[in-house]
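User: Design a sequence. Structure:
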């Protein structure tokens, strides 16, 4: 190398592709393109015109390639992976971090690293080039897997490329900010030398270190055959920069060494959009996808894995369970779960969620059969005592899937054959009466198909029953229908008042038809407690954007449908109609002349002494180009709110929207906040399932909480938004993103300061007791934690051990005692990889994620 070359600024060239498995084309179209692109890349690597190729940091695309390419190409790819010429990992998919639970992100890393290691190499860099912002606990997650660096673009607001990123618990990783983004392909274009020099000049001014980074590639792009020749030609003629192909890991290591002691520290979540779009309104686009994702997560984490762990199956379904996780994680890729792809992509996602649901049902059935609760055979062998395959729920089990004791009431569903019963009595298998209240009965049928004979359709009824019980952590309560005790049925219907009440709350319609919630402990009444607002939306799947002539419609009035008053539960059912413009006008400047009626049925339930109010809303949307929000009254003014993200309890300062009036190239500041399950605004606690976007608003001079129900948009991306004036993808129509039809929203509200962390109630809301058909004595010993402030992430079996993962959402260290200690071993801290860790199991540090294992 000449002395002139030695004085040049070094540039690490990382040749890469970013591979969205589905987006502006459906999955199979991109699979065909993947085979085409990678066949060219493989040839370049084999010929020496390309030194190394970064396969996007996620192994799902590699998995797609192996599953679909011809065997000859597969063998060539596998050989290059083993030779570390094609670089994999550490993620399985590039998920949206705010729309999935922390445990899903952890399993994402777990699967991605395992796949990459099995294939022959793993990149131990937290590569996140295109996710729409980042949760604050990513550094702690990465470090749990032995990864101590990260590379990202969106959400970062740093004047320079290199910084340290710190999680709330204090875990810190070195980070590289892609100041100009990951999509850089100057070596592909005609005027490549000028494009390359211009890019390098821009990043040189923003780098603390000497070595610069070029991520040569982009979305679904191949590397051109002339890459090596152009690098050589540039090095011979350019006097400022010296290009060399390197791995991303090698560059990050160099950058961290060169900038040691000089990097600023950035704390927590990264959602700033001053330097790159974070596309915040994907939180509410195609909300049905978010609901389906949470249903799958909750069934895996709140039923399937704890059930399989506690029934201790001899033939544990490791592969079937892992492949089910793969299917769920594939749906969490950011362009998938965010709802910002073409309509066909999301239709296929719904079909895949149906397949996931079938697999989850199969896993539960397998556990119940193996555990002896039910039988799969009509004619079992002699001496085989087992349940009747055609049995109904006359014998059933209540299973507590959390290592937290349950004491209280819950509504369960029982299927019983035969004529309709007007009342029920329940008892435990030990003969103890089980306090219950029959709420509702509907005719129902089910199909049972034994594996040794013909299927049979069972006729009967579905009973909605409130039960009161106590069940220790991870234990089960065997129950039966008690035909010997006088049954308890619904109370006789009384005159229908428009009010329900318990010791804490009185809920009623006032003279104007407004829903009112009176806190009987404080004397405060919220009026209107819940209302609805629709406003026009001229945006796209990524960003809300008001039209020039904004039109907003509010509805605060309800009509009474029914009122039910039972000893243990009271129910108020209300109807509401919101008349709105049918859509934007033809010029998209204001409302259409035509109107439609959007309708809702709100069911409100109060349980005796319960601290929360239960709500279920069936909302039928008939309007296009609009955003509908649930407006919740606040007991008092607030300066900040709290909500949950993956493994984190986050404080959000109140920011009011100030919408621009003209199109610019800048994305307006972020005002909507993410929430997985819980929002706290002063003394208001709002627990929910998949209502993941909220904002504090001002209405009639008062603060209110606005929770997005529906965003109706007809475009994947547009370039005429006042909130983001350039495209975020191809400009493609997506009429099904208008989300016409009926959606169900489930939420709870509490008013007043909670005695334990609000997430504890949300945890039980999303992972309630599970009602299982049949009974058995084969349950493993239970265990429970003694601190309600600690949150449970997962309970699963790993090999011959029970694994428990929990985290501390508070700013204080929390004591931890696990009761009882399992007799066959002691609890031990382990890394997410399973490697033993030193450290006490008697406490959990502030904001810490802890994994514990015990031989069982």
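Assistant: Done.
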């Amino acid at each position: 190398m000449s002395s002139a070359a030695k004085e040049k600024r070094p540039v690490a060239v990382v040749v890469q592709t970013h591979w969205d498995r589905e987006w502006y084309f459906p999955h199979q179209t991109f699979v065909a393109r993947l085979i085409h692109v990678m066949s060219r890349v493989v040839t370049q690597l084999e010929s020496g015109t390309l030194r190394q190729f970064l396969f996007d940091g996620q192994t799902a695309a590699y998995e797609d390639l192996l599953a679909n390419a011809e065997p000859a190409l597969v063998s060539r790819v596998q050989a290059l992976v083993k030779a570390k010429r094609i670089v994999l990992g550490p993620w399985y998919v590039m998920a949206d971090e705010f729309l999935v639970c922390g445990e899903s992100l952890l399993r994402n890393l777990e699967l991605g690293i395992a796949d990459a290691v099995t294939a022959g190499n793993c990149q131990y860099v937290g590569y996140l080039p295109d996710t729409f912002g980042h949760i604050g606990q990513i550094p702690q997650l990465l470090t749990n897997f032995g990864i101590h660096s990260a590379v990202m673009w969106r959400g970062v607001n740093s004047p320079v490329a290199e910084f340290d990123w710190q999680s709330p618990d204090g875990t810190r990783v070195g980070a590289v900010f892609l100041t100009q983004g990951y999509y850089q392909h100057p070596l592909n274009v005609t005027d490549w030398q000028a494009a390359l020099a211009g890019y390098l000049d821009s990043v040189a001014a923003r780098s603390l270190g000497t070595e610069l980074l070029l991520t040569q590639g982009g979305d679904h792009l191949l590397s051109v055959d002339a890459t090596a020749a152009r690098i050589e030609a540039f090095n011979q003629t350019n006097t400022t920069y010296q290009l060399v192909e390197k791995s991303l890991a090698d560059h990050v290591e160099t950058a961290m060494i060169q900038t040691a002691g000089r990097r600023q520290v950035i704390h927590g979540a990264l959602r700033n959009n001053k330097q790159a779009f974070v596309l915040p309104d994907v939180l509410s686009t195609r909300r049905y996808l978010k609901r389906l994702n949470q249903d799958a997560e909750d069934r895996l984490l709140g039923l399937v894995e704890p059930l399989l762990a506690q029934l201790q199956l001899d033939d544990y379904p490791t592969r079937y369970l892992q492949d089910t996780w793969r299917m769920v994680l594939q749906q969490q890729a950011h362009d998938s779960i965010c709802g910002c792809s073409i309509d066909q992509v999301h239709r296929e996602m719904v079909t895949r969620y149906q397949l996931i649901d079938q697999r989850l049902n199969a896993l539960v059935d397998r556990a119940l059969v193996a555990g002896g609760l039910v039988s799969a055979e009509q004619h079992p062998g002699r001496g085989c005592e087992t349940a009747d395959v055609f049995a109904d729920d006359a014998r059933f089990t209540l299973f507590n899937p959390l290592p937290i004791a349950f004491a209280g009431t819950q509504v369960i569903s029982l299927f019983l054959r035969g004529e309709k019963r007007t009342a029920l009595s329940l008892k435990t298998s030990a003969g103890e009466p089980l306090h219950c209240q029959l709420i509702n009965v509907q005719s129902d049928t089910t199909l049972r198909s034994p594996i040794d004979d013909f299927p049979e359709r069972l006729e009967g009824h579905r009973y909605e029953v409130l039960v009161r019980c106590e069940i220790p952590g991870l234990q089960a309560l065997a129950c039966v229908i008690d035909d010997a005790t006088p049954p308890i049925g619904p109370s006789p219907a009384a005159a229908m008042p428009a009010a329900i009440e318990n010791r804490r709350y009185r809920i009623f319609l006032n003279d104007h038809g407004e829903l009112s919630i009176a806190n009987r402990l404080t004397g405060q009444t919220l009026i209107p407690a819940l209302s609805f607002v629709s406003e026009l939306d001229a945006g796209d799947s990524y960003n809300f954007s008001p039209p020039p002539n904004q039109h907003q419609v509010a509805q605060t009035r309800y009509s009474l449908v029914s009122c039910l008053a039972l000893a243990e539960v009271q129910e108020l059912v209300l109807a509401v109609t919101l008349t709105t413009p049918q859509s934007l006008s033809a010029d998209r400047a204001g409302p259409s002349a035509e109107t439609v009626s959007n309708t809702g049925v709100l069911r409100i339930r109060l349980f005796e002494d319960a601290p929360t109010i239960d709500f279920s809303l069936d909302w039928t949307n008939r309007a296009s180009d609009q955003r509908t929000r649930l407006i919740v009254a606040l007991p008092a003014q607030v300066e900040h709110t709290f909500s949950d993200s993956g493994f984190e309890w986050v404080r959000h300062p109140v920011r009011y929207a100030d919408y621009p009036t003209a199109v610019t190239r800048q994305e307006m500041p972020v005002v909507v906040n993410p929430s997985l399950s819980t929002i706290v605004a002063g003394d208001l606690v709002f627990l929910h399932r998949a209502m993941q976007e909220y904002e504090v608003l001002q209405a009639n001079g008062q603060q209110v909480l606005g929770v997005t129900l529906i965003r109706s948009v007809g475009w994947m991306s547009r370039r005429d938004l006042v909130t983001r004036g350039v495209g975020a993808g191809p400009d493609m129509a997506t009429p099904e993103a208008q989300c016409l039809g009926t959606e169900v929203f489930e939420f709870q509200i509490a008013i007043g300061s909670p005695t334990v962390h609000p997430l504890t109630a949300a945890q039980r809301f999303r992972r309630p007791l599970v009602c299982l058909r049949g009974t058995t004595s084969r349950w493993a010993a239970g265990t429970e934690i003694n601190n309600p402030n600690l949150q449970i992430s997962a309970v699963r079996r790993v090999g011959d051990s029970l694994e428990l993962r929990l985290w501390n959402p508070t700013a204080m260290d929390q004591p931890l005692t696990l009761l009882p200690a399992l007799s066959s071993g002691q609890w031990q801290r382990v890394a997410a990889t399973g490697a033993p860790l030193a450290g006490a199991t008697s406490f959990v540090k502030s904001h810490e994620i802890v994994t514990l294992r015990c031989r069982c």
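Residues 1-5 have pLDDT under 50 and may be disordered. The two ends are 62 Å apart (CA to CA).
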